[in-house]
Amino acid sequence: MPVISYIDAVTQALMEEMKRDPRVFVLGEDVGVRGGVFRATVGLIEEFGEDRVLDTPLTESAIAGVAIGAAAYGMRPVAEMQFADFIMPAVNQIVSEAAKIRYRSNGTWSCPLVIRAPYGGGVHGALYHSQSVEKIFTGVPGLKIVMPSTPYDVKGLLKSAIRDEDPVLFFEHKRCYRLIKGEVPVEDYTVPIGKAEVKREGTDVTVISYGLTLHFALQAAEQLAKEGISVHVLDLRTLIPLDKEAVLEAVAKTGKVLIVHEDNLTGGFGGEVAAVIAEEAFFELDAPIKRLCGPDVPAMPYSPPLEKEFMLNPEKIAKAIRELAEF
Amino acid sequence: MLGQLETTYVQYLSPEGKLSVAGHAVWNQLSAEMKISFYRWMSFVRMFDRRSVILQRQGRIGTYAALEGQEAAQVGSALALSKEDWIFPSYREHGVAMIAGMPLSQIFLYWMGRVEGCKPPEGVRLLPPSVPIATQIPHAVGAAWASKLKKETSVAVAYFGDGATSEGDFHEACNFAGVFRVPAILFCQNNGYAISVPFSRQSASPTVAEKAKAYNFPGIRVDGNDVLAVYDVMKQAIERARAGEGPTLIEAVTYRKGPHTTADDATRYRPASEVEEWVKHKDPLTRYTRLLKAEGLLSDAEEREWEAECKAQIDSAIKEAESSVPAPPEHLFAHVYAKLTPNELRQQQQLRKRGGRR
């Protein structure tokens, strides 16, 4: 199997889905001639032309709204928000319209739409190019929220998202784009939305995570194995719908749970995961549920020591795992 | 405020029921069937509307957004559309919905809070009303873009009020529509007030239509109480869109005779003299009826006959809506997704276990 980067997996999925289905088109800022500011859509305009790879004005609400209207007409739009931070003007369209069109039309109309957005920090992106925004949407039924961590999952899940009948928010950690590489099959495949995956088997402590921090957790697990601590790592891959069974299974493996994400602690999706565990697996627990998350500050600072302090890393995660192991 | 509303617009039929020179030309091109159709729909919509207000007062439907006074804007524009065209309405467009093919009983169901009321018959390209204000305008632009991508001839129309023109979505949609020259029509019913706020507080530009200039497509101001002018202007906009000439913004200047909704009291913010002026002297139905009668196309007896027919149809639709059995409580979870997720399924099962009333 060829080894490709996380961002190449995005490009390949788009290229293949656009070839497979003429209803699929891409729209967003700089997605055409520039091939995207991260170059996720590189080569698409040459292959499919400017009508199917639409360079839009700076107009996030209309990017989402136009995509919603086109989806109602039977198209399969894939909208790009240049940075997840800039999704805010489109929140009304996503929450009030995309998430509710099927529901309020009693199933007559649907919104098969994908909104891709690079999120996350650790790239010196400063306050407005570093945010994690998933918690704004996880409490909005009608949306699906996918946050892959590996090239294999990126490609398979993005294809599933494009083929899905409902609106999917597809968040790509921008630090992963060129940092994370992995094997990806040449032939067509999909990864189902709503299925978590065990990325490492272990017996002492369970770590539940997604995105960049999943890789930090795997690195921590590798280090801790040398210290004799066996870490079980579950990659959620999809936040909504949450794979509860996989979460509960992963908890039962060790009885000790650490939930890790870069989004802020308060209101972050880890709270929901913790609540599910507390409600449904309380008697499996041998220690209090622990969360390691982004601090509750309004944004990721630009100043390097502050950005470093905000970001999680394998050492911070290893420390938290050790504490749990010793509990 | 009134002064602003009265700046120049396209008018073919005066409030007295007299055709202008241009109006005569349009009138002479219309079939007898079309001429009577304008009347019948406006009259029907008005009777539906008045009845709905009564039903709300009787507690038989929920809060209702009345449209009396805006019949010509809705009927004239909707009759210019074809079956293939897409409609993205706001919450006051029941007249448009009826003409598009939404059965009356379903429109009543909608106002009873029943989501089935939003399900149009097969082939009717009518979306449910958008309530958040202006959010449907980019949707129409998106559907128009899809029509262009699919190389089809359908156009998409967004209906909205004057208040919506202050929202970002209106401007983002206009800009997008202008840049990509999509076959969309942005149809604004400027009824003078967004709940209590007059248009002069909504907009520094004295008209909605002139805003189109900034987006480089035509903005046309039309007497929204003149059904002939609205129909003709809309038809021209549709022809332009189908010919690939891009979007049009239409401002139909009209007046909401009643309150914003049945939950509002318009006497708190509108002078009685202003309301009287519109109700007594500018009514869309009165002026058109005058014309038909002067042209010998409608008699008092035919008028009464038609009103009796409307009443019968409305009665029957109310009966049908009121006898329709509401969906059971577990319908709460229907259509959240195409296929319910384990989470919704679990909550639906819990609801059943609690013995959700059937």
From TrEMBL, chain A:
Transketolase-like pyrimidine-binding domain residues: 4-179
Cofactor(s) named in the record: thiamine diphosphate
Mitochondrion listed as a keyword: no
Database matches in SMART domains: Transket_pyr
UniProt-listed SUPFAM superfamilies: Thiamin diphosphate-binding fold (THDP-binding) (SSF52518), TK C-terminal domain-like (SSF52922)
GO molecular function: oxidoreductase activity
Keywords: Oxidoreductase, Thiamine pyrophosphate
UniProt protein name: 2-oxoisovalerate dehydrogenase E1 component beta subunit
Organism whose genome encodes this protein: Lihuaxuella thermophila
Automatic annotation (TrEMBL), chain B:
InterPro entries in the record: Alpha-ketoacid_DH_E1_comp, DH_E1, PdhA/BkdA, THDP-binding
Keyword Cell membrane (UniProt): no
Entry's Gene Ontology molecular function annotations: pyruvate dehydrogenase (acetyl-transferring) activity
Residue stretches making up the Dehydrogenase E1 component domain: 40-327
Cofactor dependence: thiamine diphosphate
Signal peptide: none
Top-level taxon of origin: Bacteria
Enzymatic class: oxidoreductase
Biological role stated in the UniProt entry: The pyruvate dehydrogenase complex catalyzes the overall conversion of pyruvate to acetyl-CoA and CO(2). It contains multiple copies of three enzymatic components: pyruvate dehydrogenase (E1), dihydrolipoamide acetyltransferase (E2) and lipoamide dehydrogenase (E3).
UniProt-listed Enzyme Commission number(s): 1.2.4.1
Keywords annotated in UniProt: Oxidoreductase, Pyruvate, Thiamine pyrophosphate
UniProt subunit comment: Heterodimer of an alpha and a beta chain.
Oxidoreductase listed as a keyword: yes
Catalyses which reaction(s): N(6)-[(R)-lipoyl]-L-lysyl-[protein] + pyruvate + H(+) = N(6)-[(R)-S(8)-acetyldihydrolipoyl]-L-lysyl-[protein] + CO2
Protein name as it appears in the record: Pyruvate dehydrogenase E1 component subunit alpha
One GO term (biological process): branched-chain amino acid catabolic process
